[in-house]
Design a protein that fits this description.
single chain, alpha+beta, Copper Amine Oxidase, Chain A, domain 1, 6-stranded mixed sheet, 5-stranded antiparallel sheet, 19 strands, 18% strand, THAP-type domain-containing protein, zinc-finger, THAP_Znf_sf
């Protein structure tokens, strides 16, 4: 029941406060409230309302001073509180003269208030001073510059004021002579112009237009510093005059000569720097690259003649990034796995225990000319390549990943792919790598290529290693590809997208997982602010052909949150087969947690034992995988509502291969290290 004020004849139920726990203060409250009858009694459930306290005794906000601005800020409290050591005094039966006046401000609080007031005064004074400072030093016209230079003469510069301009002269004086080093002009448009006799140069445009005195002073300091440099500037000044003259010709000569003038200007600019500090314009680099690609010998002759300053051949090759993309050359024994041969000397032993990941990329068939070579040809025919088979290395005891070989092909057969795969494995073993497993997708050509490692050809979890018959070579199908196929098989069911599967604990019980239950769940929750199935989206529930290849959309459905959501909303919303669908999703979620573990502490961080690394102590994970294999074998006997033959075989082989690979790891690698596939 709600609390009420314990004061006689007070029926207010506003903000209520509990009695203090100290016995002396509690008795004082009771005396002031006229409730002596409650002395020596349990008053845990008694309250006093805010009307029986002075307004100053009730704290409704917290006041703090800002250290940056000194302003007093009031932060409202979530509920009113009593100040320390207050007693109820404002009682209905007592006169107003009995009310206690508000307490004085403490010395510490008063000192803090005075400090903040002084800080605010200092900030206001500083802002006013800054406004005055910038008001005197901001330029809007030539008259403002004249007024500033009149009040604040420059120490190193002599000023001459004219109605339409201001002239500044830098005179370097010593004991015997004086020398005029530079003349500047501030125009009516507030532009800073360098004077060479009667010629005006606009090379100081990065100081223009002048907007304030600070910009003017900094610009003059940089110019004065460059003028006092002991290095002779005579050559640079003459070259600048040449550039000035060439630029003036652009407006006098016809447009067809502009490229010639720009080229000559670039050559003049290159004369200012040493050979090792040349900086070429993009036009010069493009021109040089074209000549070098047409005839390297001709380019070398022009460069050695000394008539032109051009980039070296090394610079051209570095900029153009010449790449030999001839497929025939890539398959030659002298260049085979050339990159990995160069890279392996920088790898440690853990980086060399690898899995080979094989995948294919469909490419547009066309040829192109790059870096002096025609690319796009297929290695096994005169036609353009339609696919690129990529062989990638992934270290299973470190984070090292790299591409070992790319095979462009057109209509590649399984026998040829097997030959290349075996050649790559043997070459890697000769370099010092240890190839433990091959991971591919569930493509038919990849499965058939792997089957040739046995005689007669057959698909199994492991084969005799081509480099050492005493070692196994494991074959695992990519689990990401399998998960996408599981979802796609569910969507492709012709019986209303229903998967008929055996119960995981009792194989004699049949269950039905309906995709419609997941869609109904999203429909029920789509307008809620807080959702159980927060991962669901329309793209995940109604994917297009392209979106079916996106594993992120698959994981929106096969998610533990969807399992929880089905079990929460199923009974309330009468979702069809909600429990069977939740069990189906949970089985594959647990399988995915096991095969998708990539870090050591993921399981502990998420408190999920199935996300811990697979070790010899992972008894619960092994039990699940063995039971999962038996469950798949029993599911295979069903007539309809099951996975396709290819998907079923892929997931069965992947689980069996993972178990055998883990057992091999425990026997071969005795040290306490974890590896991931």
């Amino acid at each position: 029941m709600p609390f009420k004020c314990c004061v006689n004849q007070c029926k207010d139920q506003k903000t209520l406060f509990s009695f203090p726990k100290e016995e002396s203060r509690k008795n004082e409250w009771l005396h002031r409230l006229g409730r002596k009858d409650l002395l020596n009694k349990n008053i845990k459930n008694y309250r006093v309302c805010e009307l029986h306290f002075q307004e100053g005794d009730v704290k409704r906000s917290e006041e703090v001073y800002s250290e940056e601005t000194g302003q007093l800020m009031a932060v409202p409290l979530d509920r009113p509180r009593l100040r320390k050591d207050v007693t109820p005094i404002s009682l209905p039966s007592r006169s107003s003269f009995q009310k206690i006046p508000p307490k004085r401000i403490s010395p510490e609080r008063k000192r803090q208030r005075l400090e903040c007031e002084m800080l605010q005064s200092a900030i206001a004074t500083s802002i006013a001073s800054e406004e005055i400072y910038w008001k005197e030093r901001t330029f809007s016209n030539i008259a403002d510059v004249t007024n500033f230079l009149t009040k604040h003469p420059l120490s190193d510069w002599t000023a001459s004021f004219k109605p339409e301009a201001i002239f500044l002269f830098f005179i370097l004086e010593d004991a015997n002579s004086s020398e005029l080093k530079c003349g500047l002009k501030i125009s009516n448009e507030l532009k800073l112009i360098l004077l060479h006799g009667s010629v005006e140069s606009s090379i100081l445009n990065f100081f223009s237009p002048l907007t304030n005195a600070v910009q003017l002073e900094n610009g003059l300091k940089e110019i004065a510093k460059s003028l006092t440099d002991p290095i002779d500037k005579g050559v640079d000044e003459k070259l600048n005059l040449v550039n000035k003259t060439l630029n003036s010709l652009l407006s006098e000569l016809p447009p067809e000569t502009h490229n010639t003038i720009k080229f000559i200007t670039d050559q003049v600019n290159l004369l200012k720097t040493s050979k090792n500090r040349h900086r070429y314009s993009w036009e010069t680099v493009l021109f040089s690259s074209l000549i070098h690609s047409i005839s390297p010998h001709c380019y070398k002759f022009i460069q050695n003649s000394g008539n032109l300053i051009l980039p070296s051949s090394t610079t051209i090759r570095r900029v153009c990034s010449k790449f030999s993309g001839d497929p025939q050359l890539e398959q030659h024994n002298a260049h085979f796995l050339h990159y990995i041969k160069m890279k392996q000397q920088f790898l440690n032993e853990n980086d060399k225990i690898v899995a080979i990941l094989l995948d294919e990329i469909h490419i547009k068939p066309y040829m192109d000319y790059k870096g002096g070579t025609v690319v796009g040809k297929s290695y096994n025919s005169a036609d353009c390549a339609t696919t690129a088979h990529v062989f990638m290395l992934s270290a299973i005891r470190s984070s090292y990943k790299d591409v070992a070989h790319i095979l462009p092909a057109c209509r590649l057969t399984a026998e040829v792919l097997h030959g290349f795969l075996q050649k790559i494995i043997l070459e890697l073993e000769n370099m010092g790598f240890k190839v433990v497993t091959v991971v591919t997708d569930n493509n038919a050509i990849n499965r058939k290529a792997m089957s040739f490692f046995s005689n007669p050809p057959q698909i199994c979890e492991s084969y005799k290693h081509p480099a050492d018959n005493d070692r196994p070579l494991f074959f695992i199908i990519d689990t990401v590809h399998i998960l996408k196929n599981i979802r796609n098989n569910w969507l492709n069911q012709k019986n209303g997208q229903i998967m008929v599967y055996p119960d995981f604990d009792d194989f004699s019980i049949k269950r039905e997982a309906r995709f419609e239950a997941v869609r109904t769940l999203h429909l029920v929750e789509k307008d809620n602010l807080l959702k159980y199935g927060y991962t669901l989206s329309l793209k995940a529930l109604f994917p297009t052909t392209i979106e079916r290849q996106n594993v992120k959309l698959v994981l929106q459905v096969f998610n533990q949150s969807i399992v929880t959501a089905l079990r929460q909303f199923g009974p309330r919303k009468n979702l069809i087969s909600f429990e069977d669908t939740a069990i189906y999703l949970q089985i594959f979620c647990q399988w995915w947690d096991i095969v998708n573990t990539k870090t050591l502490l993921k399981g502990k961080r998420s408190r999920n034992i199935f996300q811990e690394p697979l070790t010899k102590n992972s008894t619960q994970i092994y039990e699940f995988l063995n039971k999962f294999t038996l469950w798949l074998d029993h599911w295979k006997t069903f007539e309809d509502g099951k996975l396709t033959k290819e998907t079923h075989h892929a997931i069965s082989q992947s689980v069996s291969g993972l178990i055998k690979l883990s057992e091999y790891r425990g026997k071969t690698f005795s040290e306490r290290r974890t590896f991931f596939v």
